[in-house]
Design goal:
Two copies of one chain form a homodimer. Helices cover about 45% and strands about 15% of the residues of chain A. By secondary structure, chain A is an alpha/beta fold. Chain A folds into two domains: about 290 residues, 3-Layer(aba) Sandwich (Rossmann fold); about 170 residues, Succinyl-CoA synthetase domains (Rossmann fold). In chain A, the strands form four sheets. In chain A, strands 8-10-9-11-12-13 form a six-stranded mixed sheet, with helices on both faces. In chain A, strand 11, helix 8 and strand 12 form a beta-alpha-beta unit. In chain A, helix 14 runs parallel beside helix 16. The longest helix of chain A is centred in the last third of the chain and has 26 residues. Chain A starts with 7 loop residues before the first helix and ends with a helix. At the A-B interface, helix 6, helix 9, helix 12, helix 15 and helix 17 of A face helix 6, helix 9, helix 12, helix 15 and helix 17 of B.
């Protein structure tokens, strides 16, 4: 029997606890969560539970959940699997509406004991109506509500909601995203998904006003048809990016021993994702790239692209990548090219499209002029800084020139955004890595979408472009 | 008319100059090369040439090439295009056997003047037999002979020879490669290729005893059949990696205005590369990944792979990527799994293959044991450190634990190499970037092959595997 899914607004209340019990086996491992809540600044009450401790991180520790002197809203359970059902029942009786179970050793082991223990949890969920994330999961990260499953997650909120069957991939996406300017509204790691799982959480994020883009890492869902119908609806309102794990036969076996998921074949999944206009990705890099595009780049309205670099070779290669990705690199009109040639010293420079600045990359007045003049003619501008580093290695130290180019890029990006045009920067970590970090962070802090390679940028932009075009069609069909 | 290609051993002498003239327009731009030769430690004589200077970087400067008081071997020419032919003739008359022409403004402009100037250069080459790289190129980097076209290129030699029609891509590959442990024997940037170009340089690197792997970035070749026959022969002796620029229609136009190359269609090129068992790549990332595999990884003898990570999600995803790349993830025998389970605390851990270490990633005794035991059963081990960072963030500071894991990885890699097995590490730059640099550099300094993502590692390993299998077949056919 399935617990009927809750109204998203009801679930929302459950995800806003004020009193949290953290039941752990030892200071170091079990009370990791106490530290998470403290570091992110949870403003409610935290009750550590462990019969062997008197105090945890300055908080009074209780021998059992039953000893907590008030009702609680939320239990975080990190004790050996056999003890979990009793503690879950105690939590429910103490009024908890939500529990996350970190412990593993359930159905994912494939053993009779593990499966039986998971069934017990299920029974408690059905008996008490307490909602459970897990077992075998990391839980909830909602920065605006002081909830986290890592002490180093950003305090700042964003607009990306992320649902992950894997705790590791949830951690990876949040930290990786943070490094590249992606911030999150709500992140759920649900592991074996004995109760709350992908479909209901997706329904919730679809409703959630704080969430504008949804990402999913999923190995298997309980009810494929239900998932499809929810995903189809949500993807018409918010971009939906789906990373499916276990698409090969060996990967699917690995998924079974990871979360007990029945992974389903790649073909079925691809068909499902296509039907619901979700954007399918197959790696963490691709997931983060898509979240970047959907949060940092305006809607891509057309396929006309221009590519700027300071190397003829990069020009050629970037053009190949753009055209292979379905974009169009059209030569600029002759009179415009003439204008450009009169502004910039022409030796070694090409202004036909792509634009190869060669030795004139420091002529930023001309560069600014060119960027503005081509804006009406294109939908996307890719500015490749890949070998600015080596060429500027001396200038950087002697003239602090890079700050000027950085400024030009930041202002160019703003100007493009003001006109609803796409402007992205390519900055691969090829060499001069310490300088790379500073420039990347500077650009990201100013809201510039930065990608590690032209391949990755083009791939993500092309996927987003196709998403928007299909959406247009779908909405057109609905309107008719 | 074509200048007949030289015997590689004759060309080799020409690439070992003792007296270099550097003809430049100004201290800043033209004498960049003087600095390059000084920084890399050229031990011969350097003669700067410029009528306006008396001294350049402590070296006496001559008003013209004719004023140099002795014969010269090599001229580096970085002056405006119209003046190049005279200086080239002067150089040849002074005995120079080699010149590199940095100047652009020749056939790549598409103008009558540019084409005529390039024809003049060609005539001088034919008249005097002086060999020319360029125009519109960076020239020669041979660290063992003190030749360089960047002041920041490594002094240390390696075994990779690289030929590039683009100067930017040559710079990119050398610096990017350096960051990831790839070192070079000889690098040539030949631009418009008025004389020396891809085919003859490939012939030379095929012969060169210092070169074990050859990489090429090419936009177009003068004689396709000749290239094919040379490439076919070389690729049987040394791995040959080819990155072809200008494979799309717009990319091919960009190539024409970059180096004046007639790029040829993608179909023809793919057929050519397949015929000669070259490894085709399409980006700088892929080029550097292949150079890494061919210099840092033993020959890949089979498709049996194991994947270690500390996240079930990463296990699933890595398995998918490996299987999609043509590798086989076979479950380990039951008795071996039992042994592993008795060594390692089993909760959350999976030892079936892939191996998910979960919370036991700090049990490095068990980990070492597992790595040794599975070695005979596999051809390739992929060790994914991707979320070791976030999970170790506190341990790193408190226990200096990471140095221990790093040590384990380094020793594991050596042990695998001793048995001719492949061991690679995945270390994406996701977050904690400064720590990432230190760990990456430590691993690379110890000879561990490090990749930025599982996708990229699998792609490069799969391409190398196919290269070796085709080679086996070709050699088999020859033997029969």
């Amino acid at each position: 029997m399935d617990v009927s899914p809750m109204e998203p607004s009801v679930l929302d209340k459950i995800f806003e606890p004020r009193r949290i019990a953290v039941i752990g086996t030892s200071r170091d491992r079990g009370f990791f969560w106490v530290r998470c809540f403290l570091e992110i600044g949870f403003s409610g009450e935290i009750f550590p539970v462990n019969p062997k401790e008197k105090e945890v991180l300055g908080l009074r520790c209780y021998p059992s959940v039953r000893d907590i002197p008030c009702e609680i809203d939320f239990s975080v359970i990190a004790i050996p699997a056999p003890k979990v059902p009793d503690v879950l029942r105690d939590s429910a009786e103490k009024g908890a509406k939500l529990a996350t179970i970190f412990s593993s050793g359930f159905s994912e082991t494939g053993t009779r004991e593990g499966i039986e223990l998971e069934r017990k949890i299920r029974n408690i969920v059905e008996e008490y109506g307490i909602r459970v994330l897990g077992p075998n999961c990391m839980g909830v990260y909602i920065p605006s509500r002081g909830l986290s499953f890592r002490p180093d997650f950003p305090k700042e909120s964003g607009t990306v909601g992320f649902i992950s069957q894997s705790g590791g991939n949830a951690i990876g996406v949040v930290l990786y995203g943070e490094s590249w300017g992606v911030r999150f509204s709500k992140v759920f790691s649900y592991g074996n998904g004995v109760d709350l799982e992908c479909t209901e959480l997706l329904e919730y994020l679809g409703w959630d006003p704080e969430t504008e883009v949804v990402g999913i890492y999923v190995e298997g869902v309980r009810d494929g048809k239900k998932f499809l119908s929810v995903a189809r609806r949500i993807a018409q309102e918010k971009p939906l990016v789906v990373w499916k794990g276990g698409v090969t036969s060996a990967g699917s076996k690995a998924a079974a021993s990871h979360t007990g998921a029945l992974a389903g074949s790649a073909e079925i999944w691809n068909a499902v994702l296509k039907q619901c206009n979700a954007v399918a990705v197959s790696s963490m890099d691709e997931m983060v790239d898509m979240l970047k595009v959907f949060t940092q780049v305006p809607e891509i309205r057309g396929r006309r692209i221009s590519l700027i670099s300071i190397s003829g070779g990069a020009s050629v290669v970037n053009t190949d990548l753009a055209e292979k990705g379905g974009f169009v690199v059209e030569e600029f009109p002759q009179d415009l090219q003439e204008k450009f040639r009169s502004k910039i010293q022409p030796v070694g420079v090409s202004v036909r499209n792509p634009i190869d600045l060669a030795g004139s990359f420091y002529d930023y007045e001309a560069l600014e002029y060119i960027m503005e003049e081509i804006k009406p003619l294109i939908d996307v501008l890719v500015f490749d800084l890949q070998i600015i580093y080596p060429i500027l290695w001396r200038r950087m130290r002697e003239f602090d020139y890079l700050s000027t180019l950085t400024k030009l890029v930041i202002e160019g990006c703003k100007s493009y955004r003001d006109d609803d045009k796409v402007f992205v920067v390519i900055l691969p970590v090829m060499h001069y890595e310490r300088e790379w970090i500073d420039v990347k962070n500077k650009l990201i802090a100013e809201g510039v979408p930065v990608f590690q390679s032209t391949d990755r940028a083009i791939n993500a932009l092309a996927k987003a472009y196709r998403y928007y075009r299909r959406l247009e069609k779908l909405k057109g069909n609905v309107a008719r």
